[in-house]
Amino acid sequence: SSGINAEYGSLKLIKNHDQIRPMFLYLSYTAPHIPLEVPMEDVDKYTTDSIPDNRKVYATIISIMDDGIGKVVDALKERGMMDNTILVFTSDNGARYTSLGSNFPLRGGKGTFLEGGVRGVAFVNSPLLQKTGYTNTYLHHVTDWYATFQRLAGDNPGKHSKIQLPIDGVDIWKSINDDKPCRKEVLLNLRDSSKYLDSPDPLYDNVKTEVCEECFDLTGYKLREGTPPEAQDFFALRWKNWKLLAGSKFQLQGWSSYNTQYGFLNFPGDRGMTLPISLASGTLLFDLSTDEREEVNLADQYPDVVRKLLDKRQGYLDKMLSIERRKLADIFMKNDVFKPWVQN
What we know:
Blueprint: H1 4-16, H2 40-46, H3 53-78, E1 87-90, H4 115-118, E2 122-125, H5 144-152, H6 173-178, E3 185-191, E4 196-197, E5 221-224, E6 234-239, E7 242-252, E8 278-287, H7 303-319, E9 323-324, E10 333-334, E11 337-338
Parallel strand pairs: 4-9
Antiparallel strand pairs: 1-2, 3-6, 5-8, 6-7, 7-8, 10-11
């Protein structure tokens, strides 16, 4: 939720926390995710008549979330904990392309591997930071927070009796604390049909996917309009200033419009209209240092870079686990509620 229920448990935890021990608090808001619903009295409280009606609700949801975070910060200050706290606020992805949010000037939105979908917004606030008041543009990934918090809390995995499994993230505190680089690449996604197994259980629907033999054709890419089926084999990787999208049937979208007070549109088209998504097959290479809008495909001009990035695919694939594809969830839907489907 976005209101008092979202912070209630957090405020209680802070009030009762034994400060001798480290504390990790994860407060996950649904705001501003759909459904965009708030009491009308709150809409009148947080907005003015100059804002379009649909944008009023969106702005109100953000304002309520902001108030809630403020309550958490006040609680930390009241207990004298803020001086030894690192506060991280982060989104999980860019705005959905039909939503009231905007990814301008980036391309694409939630559900794609374009910058508008994968480049999240975040800030870090703490008196423990050496450098503050700046924008960090180095490469980070959401999995990095685990490794970072683990180190800051003083946990040493090597001292535990049970060996810690390998993790994807890296410690990024030096990057945040002193504006320094910490990693060169991030795997955005890798789908390979060879990793999907048919379930041995007859109750499950077997789903077979054929391996695409032209996934990494360097001759360009083709587009087709329409609602995309489940994506097939593809590989999306960020390495230094380069981004590679290669494979079959990965989603592409256009560019966000510049939002004004009276034109809160994320993508060109009528408000509320669902726009078609393009599916690409082939290879796209973008230089984000000069083309953050991902407008120019450089795959043909830099075949060596393409090959270098494609060569990294096998290393990631070797570490992937095979999974069974099951479609049983609808069987356990009772009165529009999902029930547990793991059988004892």
